[in-house]
Design goal:
With 319 residues, the chain is an alpha+beta fold. It is built from 12 helices and 11 strands.
Length: 319
């Protein structure tokens, strides 16, 4: 999953809708390109002339995908990082101002000082599934908004209009689910993962789709790493003799939200998770604390199953 190398040149690329601002260290060269096919190709050509470059880009809700895809296709090591980490790093540097050129410099410094791990970019099939899952989330949010309006509407004509919209959204969600399932079935690796994931009582097809789209690292990391990546690993808050309350932080919220619902179901229908949850409650843990622990246990089980290519079995749960 990871490509290890020793970079010598560090490139920060700040992405906006129409422009790519670039900073190259240690030469401190600053450039700008149009954010289009030609601009991405020129950027890749320029970076390709550097010796052992490491490129860092922020995840910007989709604008980073064409740029990172172009760079990776040219064999250029590219890390897509969490914007919050970069902003915190900028504050640590004392860079409180925020412009495109400053952001590009901070990204280059982030690459130089922290050297984030380079992960393989998803293939065409994986990217298509990710876009379908994202679109489904958008439609669900729209449906919720329309249903809230339906509750407040009085006029028959308005209620009919809202209900028509809800029915249309429902139809689109069903269509997206079918397309996603067809795409997964057409990919042998993802299809195998999907079968393994859904073999766990409490984990359904929707959770499986989201995990495949948003957590491609499943099965490649250790238990502590995968828990931290999702955001269900508690962090210590101790100082001197003070022992603070451990809390979860960061991670991938969309996956964590789904795990919450899956763990909630599993505490009723999965004997392993139910027994684990009850043991924690009997020891005095609060319900939500015990449920988060079940989420962590569930993702660790899923990770081990995918890693070992072994479906869930009550008699063999020894992870």
């Amino acid at each position: 999953m990871y490509k290890k190398f020793i970079p010598e040149v560090f490139v920060g690329v700040d992405i906006s809708k129409s422009r790519l601002d670039v900073c190259i260290l240690p030469t401190n060269q600053c450039l700008s390109f149009s954010n289009n096919t030609e601009g991405c190709a020129r950027l890749a050509e320029l970076i390709g002339q550097e010796k052992s470059p490491l490129v860092v880009i922020e995840a910007t809700g989709g604008y980073e995908i064409p740029v990172s895809a172009e760079l990776v296709s040219k064999g250029l090591p590219t890390a897509v990082v969490n914007p919050k980490r970069v902003r915190d790093f900028a504050r640590a540097l004392g860079r409180l101002a925020k412009t495109d050129s400053i952001d590009a410099y901070v990204l280059a410094r982030f690459a130089q000082d922290l050297k984030p791990e380079v992960r393989l970019m998803p293939g065409e099939s994986e990217q298509f599934i990710r876009e379908l899952v994202t679109r489904r989330q958008q439609l669900v949010a729209l449906r919720t908004a329309e249903k809230n309006r339906l509750d407040k509407a009085v006029s028959k004509q308005v209620r009919k209009s809202i209900q028509t919209m809800v029915d249309t959204i429902d139809a689109q969600i069903r269509e997206i689910d079918k397309k996603t399932d067809d795409e997964i079935k057409g990919n042998p690796i993802l299809h195998e993962k999907s079968i393994l994931i859904q073999s766990v009582p409490g984990v359904g097809s929707h959770t499986s789709r989201m995990i495949l789209a948003a957590l491609p690292e499943l099965g490649t990391l250790g238990p502590k790493q995968i828990s931290s990546l999702v955001g269900v690993a508690p962090f210590n808050r101790d100082s001197g003799t003070l022992r603070g309350k451990r809390m979860i932080s960061g991670g991938r919220k969309n996956v964590r939200n789904l795990l919450y619902m899956a763990a909630l179901v599993a505490t009723r229908f999965n004997h392993v998770i139910r027994a684990f949850y009850q043991r924690l409650r009997d020891s005095g843990k609060k319900p939500k604390v015990a449920l988060v622990a079940c989420m962590r246990k569930l993702i660790i089980i899923l990770n081990a199953m995918v890693k070992n290519k072994r479906p869930f079995s009550y008699s063999s749960v020894d992870f």
